Amino acid sequence: MTRLLIGSLLLASCSTALPDAADGGGDAGSFAGAFLSPDCAPDDGAALSLRLYEVAVPECSADTDHRVLSFYLFEGATSFLPIEAGETLTSSSASGSATACPGGEAPCRSGESWSLTFETYAEGTGASGTYTVTFDDGETVSGRFDAAWCDPGVVCG
Fold this sequence. Notes:
Helices cover 0% and strands 50% of the residues. It is mainly β. It has one domain. Strands 1-4-3-2-9-8-7-6 form an eight-stranded mixed β-barrel. A hairpin with a 5-residue loop joins strand 2 and strand 3. It is globular, with a radius of gyration of 15 Å. It starts with a strand and ends in an 8-residue tail after the last strand.
């Protein structure tokens, strides 16, 4: 099935370069909390947000003071839902962008590519899998996620 997916990605960290274990910032691909939630596309169609937080946060909360990696995926002319176990969504098979932003108000930087593999996906429950993001300077961040479902009651349209 042909899939048309538009995605964008936001990555916030504690510095303009992602921290790593050597500078005391922890593993750049390590996140303590994750939420998957329905969202609205620019045309008010179906969308999903996957947010990975550097620190554990209360369910459905936002934290702009620490590093956060957010995938924003929305449907175009064809549907990518339902997501099936083992499915991989990539920036090369979909329109999208990646942006790294430090927590707080520091400037952001754009990424070149991303991939997101769903090992499990259950609407209303959550998802688990792996991600990889490569930035224009060649830095690559990858890791695993285990995201609980969070339904903020978004109404599109």
